[in-house]
Amino acid sequence: MPSLSLVPLGLGLAVDAAVVAAAAGLGTGRLKLRVLLAVTLAFGVAQAVMPLVGASVMTWVGAWVASWDHWIAFVVLCALGVRAIAHSLRSAEPSEDVAPSLLTPFGLLSAAVATSIDALGAGLALPATGTSLPLAASVIGATTAVCCATAYAVATLTRRIPGRASGVLAGLALVGVGIHILIEHLATHA
Predict the structure, then answer these.
(1) In the chain, which ranges are continuous DSSP H helix?
(2) Which of 189, 188, 62, 37 is nearest to 117 (CA)?
(3) pTM to 2 decimal places
(4) DSSP symbols for 43-88
(5) Residues 149-175: what's their mean pLDDT?
(6) What is the overall mean pLDDT for the chain?
């Protein structure tokens, strides 16, 4: 695979992570540098590491991952989305941080891993293309990091959305990404 074709691959793999990063931006309501860095690093590193993991374990878990990856991503993202919605609806006062379950270290790690399972799948196929795995991982990770930083920053500009509504919207985005991953996989493997 020529290195130029790694950028579109990176963009394709970054879409789900960017949507979740945007949900985090909606949830915080204003640009917070520490959250921007955490989101960018979590998603960028996860997307860079997963193709390497996929390539290294392809022979013994490839079939299992391919048969369950969509369900894992669906459950994790829907759980995070439902928690964000529930927190937003339970809040007595609209707050600036309406996506606390997503922005905890565990929530961020869970979302990063869930949205990078497709990168693990890409890693299963990369060795067959003759592509340099370190180069592919670097391009995929960097592309995801830039997309997530941009999505988070742009989403924080939507301060016009009231606190509870932005939390519900962020939660719905997470659930939507989970459903999209499940439907896309089931449709292509039906």
Answers:
(1) 6-28, 33-90, 100-103, 105-115, 117-129, 133-155, 163-188
(2) 62
(3) 0.70
(4) HHHHHHHHHHHHHHHHHHHHHHHHHHHHHHHHHHHHHHHHHHHHHH
(5) 75
(6) 78
